[in-house]
TrEMBL record:
SUPFAM superfamilies the record matches: alpha-catenin/vinculin-like
Taxonomic lineage from the root: Eukaryota, Metazoa, Chordata, Craniata, Vertebrata
Record-level GO cellular component terms: cytoplasm; focal adhesion; plasma membrane
Residues of the Talin IBS2B domain: 8-119, 129-241
GO-annotated molecular function: actin filament binding; integrin binding
InterPro entries xrefs: Alpha-catenin/vinculin-like_sf, Talin_IBS2B
This protein's name: TLN2 protein
Keywords of this entry: Cytoplasm
UniProt entry tagged with the keyword Hydrolase: no
Amino acid sequence: CYRESILKTAKALVEDTKLLVSGAASSQDKLAQAAQSSANTITQLAEVVKLGAASLGSDDPETQVVLINAIKDVAKALSDLIGATKGAASKPADDPSMYQLKGAAKVMVTNVTSLLKTVKAVEDEATRGTRALEATIEYIKQELTVFQSNEVPENTSSPEESIRMTKGITMATAKAVAAGNSCRQEDVIATANLSRKAVADMLTACKQASYHPDVSPEVRDRALRFGTECTLGYLELLEHVLLV
């Protein structure tokens, strides 16, 4: 019963996205209006998605998590888009910030589309696991893009913390293999949710550790390379589970 409300609000958010992108080339007032409108719309969308998740009942918490993760991705993409819009404001069309803005807008639309696909899949128990896995794969790819960027993390952590976070990957891998063997929807959904967190935590810890003051540039490059290789390997595993 919440599907139509989610669809309607998501469409409004896509329109807000267009206004944000065009607002970068217009006045500060128009840009501020577009930002405020999108903030109001994402709040409405989050509320209706939460109501939709609650309507599933407490006996299906993993699917509730899938829905909540989907709206979190949209909210994060919107925040990044607003940041990119501010950076591109009043800049010429060939400025690098304009390309960053277009990239942020693309991610935004991708995540809104992913949310709508997830909402649709929730109504069909036979496709819930597949959709959850597809959404996780897309999320991990986006996290890997951030990891591979030149952006320096705000905080650093110890190599020990990075090592500790790899344990989550080991657990998630075992769960993914088990889900591939059982092919039960609930196992696949649980794998999707666990994988999402395990890989994101590993990438964050790896990047923070690689920028620790005691780490040499050579070791940093190796750590970042292995973080990428680990993620690509895990993505390949999830693609196999999806195929099965």
